[in-house]
Amino acid sequence: LQALSKGDHQAFELLFKKYFKSLFLHVQPILISHDNCQEAVQNTFLKLWEKRSQLKITGSLQAYLRKMAFNEALMLRRAQKSFANPDQLDLTELDTRLEHVIEHKQQFTQLEACIKSLPEKIQETFTLYRKEGLTQVEISDYLGKAKKTIKAQLSRALVLLRSCLGLEKTKK
Questions:
Q1: Distance CA 4, CA 111 (A)
Q2: Where are the alpha helices (DSSP H) in 61-146?
Q3: pTM of the predicted model over 0.70
Q4: Which of 76, 77, 116, 149 satisfies CB 3.0 to 4.6 Å to 145 for a cystine?
């Protein structure tokens, strides 16, 4: 955030790469259309860049971005409603996208349950790696464990998650 507030393009690009997909999925139930979701998230990052010098985020950056993206999605949806003719709406696309969102949410819920079923130490390592975005070296330093231990725990987590999700590789 400090680098971003000073106009560091690399910091902005890093934030964009880290949060774009999760923000896209966050606004998808509101906007349905892939193009509209992209527009809302891009507008979010545009506003973040424009307001970079005035940013005073006291909580989570991710929560801040999610709120910004949500507001962008609502504004975009309101603008669309004022131009939409109900007789010309294509409800088949809406149904298809809604089914996709529901299926995605079910998969996400199943994944979260599988992560919670991991042994405590493996779950902690996996969460730091996948959700917090820490590197194996950073996790090793943070937890005071050897890098090989962290690597083994992450490998074990993936094996257990594949098994829990029914994605086990078939042996030939």
A1: 33
A2: 61-83, 91-116, 120-126, 136-143
A3: no
A4: 149
